[in-house]
Amino acid sequence: MMIKVAIVEDNPKDQALLAGILDQWSRVKTDAACKIQKDYYETGESFLEEARKYQLKYHLIFMDIGLGGKLSGLETAQLLRESGDQTPLVFLTGYDMHMRQGYQVRALDYISKPAQVQAVYSCLGRLASIYLEAGYMISDHKGVVEIPYRDILYFSQEKHYMNIVTRNQLWKQRISIKDLERILPAQFVRCNRGSIINVFAVQQINKKFVLMKDGRSVPITAPYLEDVYSRYRNKSMIQY
Known about the structure:
Blueprint: E1 2-8, H1 12-30, E2 35-41, H2 44-53, E3 60-64, H3 73-82, E4 89-93, H4 99-103, E5 109-112, H5 117-132, E6 135-140, E7 143-148, E8 152-158, E9 161-166, E10 170-173, H6 177-183, E11 188-192, E12 195-198, E13 202-205, E14 209-212, E15 217-219, H7 222-233
Parallel strand pairs: 1-2, 1-3, 3-4, 4-5
Antiparallel strand pairs: 6-7, 8-9, 8-12, 9-10, 11-12, 13-14, 14-15
């Protein structure tokens, strides 16, 4: 099991302290069955640029509010949310005065600096329930509907709309595939120009199509074949 974490912190001591607690949690609480991959950023600008450029997906982001670049942690979080990214976010701060602003970007929690073991452990414990209950949200004539990620087989573009295919139902949403790719968690991977599959719903992959567990097939094209194989082989490392 792999948890991918971004640490956006410009103080080396605070960065190292948090990283040490995360590694300790992995050893003590999971008997080393869970590994934590940590990516480090010293400014909000570098984090946003790298995440956009490489389409990075994280399970959890730790964000220092008092970053030393042009963007504060709160401003970085606001831009992240405006891009459609809903990754759970924990602020690192020495001041309670920022908490109300943090609610506007739907922060999971706050940790006072220097980070304490129990506070970090608490955040990681809450993370499991978030991902178990996570889903894709759309609006229809009845209001907002949340479709559990585990129920989605694949997304397929049809003109200006995206078909969201589950085992028992078909939903439609007006969204581009590029925008969709940016907001989906790492268990979803593109397999052709207009389709994104859930690797946990895949039964078999060959050079021409992906066979889903319910018997349906989705075409696969050469430019996406290697990425699909890689994501499928490593699927146990991208779900928490």
